[in-house]
Task: structure prediction
Amino acid sequence: MADIPAVAGFRWGGVEAGIRKHGGRPDLALLVADGPAACAGVFTMNDMAAAPVLLSRAKAAAGTARAVLANSGCANACTGAQGMEAARRMAAALERRGIDASEVLVASTGVIGAPLPVAKIEAAAAKLLAAARPDGIRDFARAIMTTDTREKIAFREGSVSGRRVTVAGACKGAGMIMPNMATMLGFLATDAAAEPGPLQAMLREAAADSFNAVTVDGDTSTNDTLCILASGRAGGPPVREASGGAYAALRALVREVCVDLARAIAADGEGATKFIEVRVEEAFSPYEADVVARRIANSPLVKTACHAADPNWGRIMAAIGACGLTIDPQRVGISVDGADLVERGVGLGDEAEREAAVQMRKSSFTLLVKLGRGSEVRSIYTCDYSAEYVKINAEYRT
Result:
């Protein structure tokens, strides 16, 4: 992984606070700005939203923040009034260091239903703040991991209004992945100057093409959180409207970082051995393209066939037909990384399947479906299902 550039005006950190059931790993992360920063956020649409989501959703709406404090090892979800009080105490953990609770977004990930040991967070706050540094993003990324096998970090540099700006981000996610807004936990920082309104607009647009286009197992978390903070340290006039060249330039950088992070989540799905892009073309509408791509990507039968490099195209056809969209099978085509499997709804024979199987043995490939109904396109990022996926989730709490 290339060296991640520092983002002017921010420090990242991660320490072990003893939150995890089994210690020995960092479990408390901090992104802190040198001063008030513009912020935006998108959060889970799950009706069982966790206490930190409820608290941070309201704070992000205010448009400014100084810090994000996140923990792994405990989701603080479905914990009632006790959980909300713990989330408030977590936000206030930095008050003795001059950062007011109203300026702190909080996020949690881990087992649902367990009480958050917030006293451990309070006790570790000073150590965490002291450990935060401009080049500490990897420490941050490691501290938010749960069943992830590797840290997930991305960045882009570019020009906005003639100023060189950086966007960097870290996320976590490997299971309970099919966001209905954003990601499991994702955090971006930029030194660009931008007001909260356009920052919110570009984050939502970026999430639609990235985290809302990724699925591992079709489940939406109670804790999904994606936020961005902008320090303005790059200088220049701030982006004030959700239109124009400066907005488009910054939006492109944010989107590219989000897509990289979302693809990293799919590639690191629990037990995954293969990254798969399910791409639907020639759909009648954006909705149709999304429904079909998502149905294929979430099919256990398709995902297990991918694991075995078995070009069982009948499973893909069945998934398409189950979408309730009255799709004409005689218009459907299917291919794997350029190896055609199906034309006009009919398989192309043994040789075609052998060629497709070669492509499916790779660690990354694209399943392309053409519906022959229009011009809309949608890609959904996913992974295969292996026996390891069952083992990880069967033993998750033990």
Remarks:
- The first helix runs from residue 51 to 61.
